[in-house]
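User: Sequence recovery, please. Input:
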């Protein structure tokens, strides 16, 4: 029997710890995971965690569709190389499909139909890529769809949260119909002064799992960079563990080549 892939507190909380194959150890399958952060505490390292888990080696049977708005390919390639994951190799082997949406523009003054058409085209490209990956010729076990900053997609769409939500609804259907994972990052403080329903509140309703990266309640610390709170709203029989509906909380420290996860008071 193959040895279980190394795990940590984040994997434990997500229910992916202890898996004996890369597909089960990568990302929560058939689930929509929402990562929330704020200006004081970036959650980008959580996205890096998912990318590395989904692409553990050049021979992996997993694939990642990465919609990047916050940073370009060179940035992510540089960061992931330090974590032992070479994105250039994965892209060359067609295991990573990197859509650099920094140049995505919805011209000022365009009508709703034009904005809608842009999202339809974007989703169509994702759907075709997923179908290609899951074809008998490719035999990809798991496809992870990752969006690094959904709030920037809302800005690119001229503030149209409705079109962004429609787009995400279609992406969520891929988690069940095509056995995909969907990982989305957003910024909680962007909506902190907005009254009424926001894109964030809709995302929290749709998500199966919510990961919040927050500053320490006790203030700044040189050795502890923040805390993670994970809420699994739904767990399926595919999952290896975790507590449904119960918030799990622990601290983290981001280092150049890794991230430490630990319970309060246990840092050596």
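Assistant: Recovered sequence (268 residues):
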């Amino acid at each position: 029997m193959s040895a279980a892939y190394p795990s940590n507190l984040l994997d434990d909380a997500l229910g992916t710890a202890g898996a004996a194959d890369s597909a089960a150890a990568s990302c929560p399958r058939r689930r929509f995971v929402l990562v929330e952060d704020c200006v004081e505490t970036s959650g980008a390292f959580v996205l890096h965690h998912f990318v590395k888990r989904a692409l553990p080696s050049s021979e992996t049977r997993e694939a990642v569709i990465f919609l990047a708005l916050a940073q370009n390919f060179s940035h992510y390639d540089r960061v992931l190389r330090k974590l032992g994951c070479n994105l250039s190799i994965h892209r060359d082997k067609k295991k990573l499909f990197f859509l650099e949406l920094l140049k995505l523009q919805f011209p000022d003054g365009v009508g709703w139909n034009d904005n809608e058409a842009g999202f339809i085209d974007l989703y169509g490209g994702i759907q075709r890529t997923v179908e290609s990956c899951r074809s008998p010729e490719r035999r990809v076990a798991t496809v992870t769809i990752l969006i690094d900053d959904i709030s920037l997609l809302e800005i690119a769409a001229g503030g149209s949260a409705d079109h962004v939500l429609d787009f995400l609804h279609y992406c969520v259907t891929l988690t069940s119909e095509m056995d995909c994972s969907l990982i989305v990052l957003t910024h909680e403080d962007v909506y902190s002064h907005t009254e009424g329903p926001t894109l964030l509140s809709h995302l929290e309703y749709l998500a199966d799992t919510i990961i919040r990266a927050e500053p320490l309640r006790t203030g700044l610390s040189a050795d502890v960079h923040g805390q993670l709170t994970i809420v699994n709203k739904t767990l399926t029989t595919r999952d290896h563990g975790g507590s449904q509906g119960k918030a799990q909380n622990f601290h983290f420290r981001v280092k150049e080549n890794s991230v430490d996860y630990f319970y309060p008071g246990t840092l050596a």
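The CA atoms of residues 141 and 217 lie 40 Å apart.
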